[in-house]
Amino acid sequence: MDNLKEDVAEFRENKHNVDPLFLNRWSPRAMSGESIDDKELMALFEAARWAPSSYNNQSWRFVYAKRDEENWDNFLDLLVDGNKVWAKNGSALVVILSKKTFDYNGKFSRTHSFDTGAAWQNFALEGSRRGLVVHGMQGFDYEKAHTLVDADEELEVEAMVVVGKPGKVESLPKDLREGEKPSGRKNLDKIVFNGSF
Amino acid sequence: MDNLKEDVAEFRENKHNVDPLFLNRWSPRAMSGESIDDKELMALFEAARWAPSSYNNQSWRFVYAKRDEENWDNFLDLLVDGNKVWAKNGSALVVILSKKTFDYNGKFSRTHSFDTGAAWQNFALEGSRRGLVVHGMQGFDYEKAHTLVDADEELEVEAMVVVGKPGKVESLPKDLREGEKPSGRKNLDKIVFNGSF
Question: Does A95 touch chain B (CB under 8 A)?
């Protein structure tokens, strides 16, 4: 019994007996257009908060807009059309940024993006665990996002995320319906090497 | 009942009812010097494999040396003395790298570090779940690491990790013993913002 969700078990196999949380998470696009309450959304940020980081610097920053808020349209407008068409049914949009410097000495932190990616993964896993759609995106205007959230120069935009309640596949444009399933991965021997490449 | 481990419950509180996996993970230094078998170690890479990434590019790469292998000393020598002194009791050392370009078109992927950080977090969480010490490090020679693992120019070194079996706090140098406990985090209102900073 590997506890894979039904929609995942068809596509992924838990060969190494890892926490099913990792395999159960994927990135759907179909969302219902419902709202999300603050308590639910904050739990995802809370999970992100506990990620590790160099000198515990916690470089991650999150700026969000919920669909029933005045900022929603501006956040949605950051996305490329290919993302806008489905992300519009989300409950919240989040801009993820990282602080490029250490708090304690102001110097450059070379792991600021890497560490922020760790926090993002906690965010995604907790959302998946709660039955939410959590879908990261790179298809948006990074410069406009930096300006819109009023980020200072020490902050770099890393990604955007849409969080939503699951919706029907039929609600997606036709060309996106076929891809609405858990994706595969490279074999371990393509990413793990003993001693050297 | 929030399922926090005993050594964690004293320092952390699961206020938002997130998966205890996130709070139970921390970065100990005390390790026993025991070996780890391949099956156990591979499970951590397997967890990493299922992280999300832009265009499912899976930019993460891992090069490892186990303590009973000839490459161990060379990997250990990459570390600064402050890390070497305790990491020497680990079971495996891992250099984490990211591929800076997309497989499908060779173009630069701006999320290569961020995505690799997501995979690293899966790795760390699965290790913690299995009762292993998993400790990320930035204190090492990045250039030498790149050369040692024979990485090509498309690959960037992101971090190193030591994986080990838990050891006794008394085995650590005196100045490290006091810090051998789960660390705190910034409050949510320092990292999460509605609409803009």
Answer: no
Quick one: average pLDDT of A104-122? 98
Per-residue model confidence as pLDDT tens digits over A87-103:
999 999 999 999 999 99
Range 37-66 of B in CB contact (< 8 A) with A: 39, 42-43, 45-52, 54-56, 58, 60-65
Domains and CATH numbers, chain B: 34-166 (3.40.109.10)
Q: Report the candidate in A107, A185, A63 with the shortest Cα–Cα distance to residue B115.
A: A185
Give the pLDDT band of residue B2 (cuts 50, 70, 90): low
Is the pLDDT confidence value at A165 over 80? yes
- How many CB pairs below 8 A link A and B? 235
What is the residue-wise DSSP string for A20-57?
HHHHH------B------HHHHHHHHHHHHT---GGG-
For chain A positions 96-115, those within 8 Å of chain B (CB to CB) are 98, 110-111, 113-115
3-state secondary structure of A128: helix
**Is residue B24 within 8 Å of residue B6, measured between CB atoms?**
no
ipTM exceeding cut-off 0.95 for this assembly = yes
Q: Which residue of A has its CA nearest to B64?
A: A194
